[in-house]
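Troubleshooting: if your tokenizer reports a length mismatch, compare your output against this known-good record of 144 residues.
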Amino acid sequence: MSLEENKKVVRRFVEAYNKRNLDAFDDLLAPDYFDHTNQVGVDGLKQLMNMAFKAFPDFHETIEEIIAEGDKVWARIIFEGTHTDEWMGLASTGKKVKTEMVDIFRIVNGKLMEYRDVNNNLDFLTKLGIVEYTEMGKKIFQQK
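Known-good structure output:
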């Protein structure tokens, strides 16, 4: 597969979950797909996405940049959503969050085989109001 074809696979994957079309995962994910970040395969990923859709009903991701090299695709993604239901044991905060992450995919024969992400959980949890900066942290990071 060409680098451009690999990027198209990632774009179709992001589009599928933005549209809540988890059935499309069957065409996009290899049967032995593995998400290293969340330690799940295909079925676990579908369960995780359904939990995210419930907790953040307006959940949406936007690819800001996408780079391909060999069998890997890196995508800088902006996640936005409003936390209206429980997420990973955290009660609803009602807060709208917007955060950035980098997703790394490995693609084999046109299918997503592996996934990892690099994200800023501190930023995410701070925006939800779960974590607060200390007074010194507020000065350093210019938080009000």
